[in-house]
Amino acid sequence: MKTALISGITGQDGSYLTELLLSKGYEVHGIKRRSSSFNTGRIDSIYPDPHEAGVRLFMHFADMSDSSSLINLLYNLHPDEVYNLGAQSHVRVSFDIPEYTGDITGLGTTRLLEAIRVTGLKAKIYQASSSEMFGDRAPSPQNENTPFHPSNPYACAKLYAYWMTANYRVGYGMFASNGILFNHESPRRGETFVSRKITRAVARIKAGLQQELFLGNMEARRDWGYAPEYVEAMWKMLQLDKPDDFVVATGETHTVREFAEAAFAHAGLDWHDHIDVDPRYYRPNEVSILLGDSSKARKAFGWEPKVRFAELVRIMVDADIRMLETKDESSR
Fold first, then answer.
1. For the chain, what are the domain ranges?
2. Range 194-221+253-286+308-330: architecture per CATH
3. Alpha-helix residue ranges (DSSP H) falling in the chain
4. Is the overall model pTM greater than 0.90, yes or no?
5. pLDDT over 60 (residue 207)
6. How far apart are CA 137 and CA 140, in angstroms?
7. Among all residues, which ones are annotated catalytic?
8. Domain 3-185+224-248 carries which CATH code?
């Protein structure tokens, strides 16, 4: 039985990756930060009773800011695969807390790589890189050879982590791969991210619980995919014979305006009646377009997106509507 360690297991990608690995017979260990409030909602449905026989999912307290906790965890677990998904991952927030973003998203990756190195483990490592690293000056579409020009603190931290992963791969012979994932969404997306902010607002407006939605740059174009498919690409990267870096994207781009229009239309609403632009949501540096070319991943391990933009929007809107209906029924 293979063993995997996931940082960021309580996030969108971590929860889907956990389900995927469990379905493939893995024993899965997750890193969770100590918090005053529960933050495991995305994995509560799959987290087992620890007294049950055959339990294969375990949670451990550790932190990407604490090297000793990572070293101790790796020394005790000896995982076959390590997926580093832990980060301060909100772009707009990274402008407000750039030092923290750099510490967790950038230096946190270094701490994990160094912990693997000093423990002598032969684990395969997946580093969650980001399309934000390309910034606003990159030609479209972007692939593995496109120059990086990060335009926000989050992207800068991710780029540092990207190059540290590449350096540990070359310098120490570690199996360390970067997945340069473009935007990927789902009903488990955080509520402050624009895609989920829109679909959640649609559900609430349809239910009469709110009337307006405030957004920032409506003309930003993004390559939006479906998160469960993207975590499969993560796993496939670590099944290759050699480590490498791969772009994962749908190859099509849509504006925030198009996302909002599609989401409201699916619920029988007109977005013009409910959306206002608020300059407070603009970023100091805007990235106007991100569009990925994942032909390398397609050739290397056969990955192709199946869920396209219109279906993704429908999935998210329907899920948020169902969630409100379920809460309403449970409160009666």
1. 3-185+224-248, 194-221+253-286+308-330
2. Alpha-Beta Complex (3.90)
3. 12-23, 67-77, 91-96, 98-101, 108-119, 153-172, 194-206, 227-237, 256-266, 295-301, 309-330
4. yes
5. yes
6. 9
7. 130, 132, 154
8. 3.40.50.720
